[in-house]
Write a structure and sequence with these properties.
Helices cover about 50% and strands about 5% of the residues. It is mainly α. Strands 3-2-1-4-5 form a five-stranded parallel sheet, with helices on both faces. Helix 4 (about 65-85) packs antiparallel against helix 9 and helix 5 (about 105-115) packs parallel to helix 6. The longest helix is centred in the middle third of the chain and has 25 residues, at about 320-340.
């Protein structure tokens, strides 16, 4: 215990607040911003903060142990900082013997103990959580005030106004609107710096030889973080993923150091290789900032400012900076807007009518397919994979194999350290699985093994041949890709961006189409997927 601050040594199961109080501010595990309005204007003498660690949040999907650990460690450090700032914090840890392990019941218990006039919270990042809070407040007979989440650059009303009158939301249109609205990378006349709105065409290079990547900043776990890791190891031994490679920032100072490390050492090469993959290189030139951003340890404004400063100083090229900025002010804000716009039933959508089960190797990494073994293996080890590994490997396989969108969406929510429902669900159900009928992505992001071969070295050491569609040596990605097109020919025959691909399907001989469909069905049975449900319509 020597050297540990008094607030860390104190038994966190003992409430430090006595009622009655004026306001009880509920701070969730992904709302760790001391400048948030809900926290910033508290009166220490009359108000208090409530924070709860509840097993419900790690068991409604079987969460990766690193995902649980990063949330709990960040929450405990945040509570310590609040107390040092003079605020009163009612904190219930996971191992409190009186913990009910459910958010709603813990909130009711705190209201009974502290008797606040009002419960205040920032807009949660999940419909399920918001509904649980509203129900708990109603059951406890206390008024509830939900504040907008000012962390984001676009509030829900702004996005709704942008959506008004649009038949199809397109992220590129939203991104340009954001650039103009925020004044980012614009010339005085309102045109884009460099003459183009995005440099995607320059950002799709693959590696021709092993990349030399500077190791990213990895904070050393302090005593409080080690305490959390031991707790998770003890309480969640049956959950997926390992803790040995835990490397995530859990404090604001660590998150800021991670930001500066990315800007200095990896942003200058991020742009060209942001879609590339390489065996044994889990991070490459990516920022690794999404966990800190989604916990609110970092603000998107400071991330954008740091990248723009690097461009203005000549330390990073425009195509690198623009690609990073697009992810922050474009894609991240667009996805959140879609989540709240689509409503609480969004997660039930299944436009392609897929019914397949998720293969067991998503939880173990044990498969002969090198690309999936690499990508899932690093998720198990780090709780992380970059966006192309998510979209074009683990996600693409689920799409073309016919997995039910909710099964794969829950896997993404469970397995990634940056996973919060507002970001995971639209990215997976919408972008990956095209289960929302094109609300997020204008076309299915289906691809054969050829794409993976082009963007990585995974295929070099794999027994499957990405050029073959049928037979025991055929790459399952390639077989499933052509089967996906065959099964969905009528659905997409009038789709502007799919017509060229479907013409290739029509050129296949009847017996080859039948062989592809038969091989795909054999693979679905072999992998435990079962039926894809959407039948071939030839």
């Amino acid at each position: 215990m020597r050297g540990k601050p008094a607030d860390e040594r104190r038994d966190r199961s003992t409430p430090r607040v006595t009622g009655p109080i004026r306001r009880l501010v509920l701070v969730l595990g992904d709302q760790l911003d001391p400048r948030a309005k809900a926290v910033a204007d508290l009166d220490p003498a009359r108000d208090a903060v409530a924070m709860f660690e509840v097993a419900e949040e790690s068991t409604h999907v079987p969460s990766h142990r690193q995902r649980v650990a990063v949330f709990l460690a960040a929450m405990r450090h945040f509570a310590v900082d609040l107390r040092r700032g003079g605020l009163r914090v009612h904190y219930v840890p996971l191992d409190d013997p009186d913990n009910t392990q459910a958010l709603g019941s813990e909130l009711q218990r705190a209201v009974r103990a502290l008797r606040p006039d009002t419960v205040v919270c920032t807009q949660p990042g999940e419909w399920r959580v918001r509904q649980a809070i509203e129900h708990a407040a109603a059951q406890a007979g206390v008024s509830l005030r939900v504040l907008p989440d000012e962390h984001f650059l676009t509030d829900v009303a702004d996005f709704a106004a942008w959506m008004a009158g649009r038949r199809q939301p397109v992220m590129e249109h939203f991104y340009r609107w954001q650039r103009r609205r925020l004044g980012v990378l614009l010339n005085p006349d309102g045109t884009p710096v460099g003459g183009a709105w995005n440099y995607d065409a320059e950002n799709r290079q693959s590696f021709r030889q092993p990349p030399r990547v500077p190791p990213p900043y990895t904070p050393r776990p302090d005593p409080l973080t080690r305490e959390v890791l031991a707790l998770v190891e003890r309480r969640l031994a049956g959950h997926p993923g390992g803790l040995a490679r835990f490397r995530w920032p859990v404090t604001r100072s660590q998150a800021r150091r991670a930001l500066h490390d990315f800007i200095r050492s990896r942003l200058p090469r991020f742009g060209a290789f942001q879609d590339a993959m390489w065996a044994g290189e889990p991070f490459l030139y990516h920022s690794l900032l999404s966990p800190a951003l989604n916990l609110k340890l970092l603000n998107p404004r400071e991330c954008v400012s740091a990248a723009l400063a690097a461009y203005e100083a000549g330390a990073a090229a425009l195509h690198c900076v623009e690609g990073f900025v697009r992810q922050i002010i474009g894609w991240r804000e667009f996805i959140r807007g879609i989540y709240w716009h689509a409503g609480p039933d969004y997660g039930e959508r299944n436009e392609l009518e897929h019914q397949g089960r998720l293969p067991s190797f998503y939880w173990t990494g044990r498969t002969e397919m090198t690309c999936l073994r690499e990508c899932i293996g690093q998720v198990l080890e780090y709780g992380y994979a970059h966006h192309i590994q998510r979209l074009m490997v683990t996600g693409n396989f689920a799409l073309i194999a016919g997995v039910h969108p909710r099964h794969i969406s829950d896997w993404y929510l469970a397995m990634y350290v940056d996973a919060v429902d507002w970001v995971t669900l639209p990215n997976t159900l919408g972008m990956v699985m095209h289960a929302d009928g094109g609300l997020v992505g204008t076309k299915p992001y289906a691809a054969s093994g050829r794409y993976i071969q082009r963007m990585s070295n995974y295929c070099a050491n794999c027994r499957f041949d990405p050029a073959r569609r049928t037979g025991g040596a055929a790459c399952p990605f390639t077989t499933f890709y052509w089967d996906f097109l065959i099964r969905n020919r009528r659905r997409f025959q009038k789709h502007r961006r799919m017509s060229l691909l479907l013409r290739q399907v029509h050129r296949l001989a009847d017996d080859e189409r039948a062989a592809i469909s038969a091989r795909a069905e054999d693979l679905r049975q072999e992998f435990g997927i079962g039926s894809a449900a959407a039948p071939a319509d030839f």
